[in-house]
Amino acid sequence: MNIIGRLTKDAEVHRTAQDKQVVNFSVAINDSYKNKQGERIEQTSYFDCSYWISPNVAKILTKGALVELTGRVSARAWTASSGELKSSLTFHTSTIKLHGGSKKIEFTQGFTKQDNTKIITAEPAEDLPF
């Protein structure tokens, strides 16, 4: 599944009980349609996202950034302490493409060494259709 949206806040890195790191962030997706009366209706959907491949990507996932994500969705349901039933959808991201300015950067599992630190490999695409 692919989605395109803007980050609602800066990404955060969390550590699981098994000592694995995950990057968590939220994306807002705007959609619009015309109702039966011909009025344009604007609708915003929010996706909670997780990225398990590298915590380094959190440095560039900042509020307002436009991203294109590839991944899969999982559903979760639980009962809150108040007894209320709750549910959520999480988008498990496998590829992140950061759109900004005139360049698009894709982040994948590849790494390179630069100044003795690991960084995420970024490949700019010069010929964008928009």
Automatic annotation (TrEMBL):
InterPro entries: NA-bd_OB-fold, Primosome_PriB/ssb, ssDNA-bd. Gene3D superfamilies: Nucleic acid-binding proteins (2.40.50.140). GO terms for molecular function: DNA binding. Keywords: DNA-binding. SUPFAM superfamilies: Nucleic acid-binding proteins (SSF50249). This is Single-stranded DNA-binding protein. It comes from Flavobacterium frigidarium.
